[in-house]
Write a structure and sequence with these properties.
Elements: E1 5-8, H1 10-14, H2 23-33, E2 38-41, H3 47-57, E3 63-65, E4 70-73, E5 78-82, H4 87-99, E6 104-108, E7 111-114, H5 119-128, E8 133-134, H6 138-141, E9 148-152, H7 156-170, E10 174-177, E11 183-188, H8 194-204, E12 211-215, H9 221-226, E13 229-233, H10 238-243, E14 246-248, H11 255-264
Parallel strand pairs: 1-2, 1-12, 7-8, 12-13, 13-14
Antiparallel strand pairs: 3-4, 4-5, 6-7, 6-9, 9-11, 10-11
Helix pairs in contact: 2-11
């Protein structure tokens, strides 16, 4: 059965080590689109952070952002679907996080908010190409449910402690995933990249067997498992590689572009 839709993660997948799009990657995506195949992005990023890459790729199909919590029309910059974390849940989580002095980011109205800036903030700003807004206590600042919350912690033992707390207290209300080893990403229960992808496939009358997906992080797991052909990058999380139908070369080796060239017999020159 032929592929009719391809979904790409951004960081660690479509983007290089500098979080940029290589000309050959843009060329490869354009080449498959000219074959009549729909192409779209599914990312954990904010919409405002993903949009510059969407524009370079000249994609017009809906963009799945915040791990599936927000879907946008990139042509009209209009919201198609939005499912934020309930305010009551976000309020409880932010209180606990602030009490424990963990580093927390909150995303409301496609804007990044932090209590104060530190090295984690600067790193995220560099990756995402956005500027965080400093508001003091996030718990005091938030007056509605955020699209996503992100805790950044590099110590693995503390990470486990945080995940255990979240899982023990909010397992029926939130999803926990990660696009980077140090990221603990929180969204509303039932949110994943796969859910809006399923809805879009239904709208396009495309079967799951006709969908190819590329990803590298645990936040890509649901859609890689669901798609007819799930491709993990060589640099992907071990669990994702185990679940994938095939492996592409690393993102720093233009793995997506090279995989597309081989699979669809594209006239691309990598010499």
């Amino acid at each position: 059965m032929g592929i009719k839709l391809i979904t790409f993660d951004l960081d660690g997948t479509l983007l290089d080590s500098d979080h940029q799009l290589h000309a050959k990657t843009i060329e490869a995506v354009d080449a498959v689109r000219k074959k009549g195949i729909k192409t779209l992005v599914a990312t954990g990023r904010m919409y405002i952070s993903a949009k510059p890459h969407i524009d370079k790729l000249e994609m017009t199909d809906p963009v799945i952002t915040y791990n599936g919590a927000l879907v946008m029309n990139p042509v009209q910059n209009k919201e198609i679907y939005h499912s934020p974390i309930p305010f009551s849940v976000a309020d409880k989580i932010s209180k606990k996080v602030e009490k424990s002095s963990y580093y927390l980011q909150a995303f409301l109205d496609d804007t990044l908010y932090v209590s104060e800036k530190n090295e984690y903030t600067k790193k995220y700003e560099h990756i995402a190409g956005v500027v965080a807004q400093t508001v003091g206590s996030l718990n005091s600042f938030m007056d509605k449910g955020p699209t996503k919350m992100l805790i950044i912690e590099e110590d693995e033992d503390i990470q486990k402690e945080i995940v255990e707390f979240l899982s023990s207290n909010f397992s029926n209300e939130i999803e926990i995933s990660g696009s980077y080893p140090s990221f603990i990403e929180i969204t509303k229960k039932g949110i994943s990249k796969a859910e809006p992808l399923k809805k879009l496939a239904d709208q396009y009358n495309i079967k799951r067997e006709e969908i190819m997906v590329f990803g590298d992080g645990l936040n890509d797991l649901t859609m890689v498992e669901w798609a007819g052909r799930g491709i993990a990058m060589e640099n992907a999380h071990p669990k994702l590689r185990e679940s994938a139908d095939d492996i592409a070369q690393s993102h720093i080796e233009l793995g997506v572009a090279k995989y597309l060239k081989q699979y669809f017999d594209l006239a691309l020159d990598f010499s």
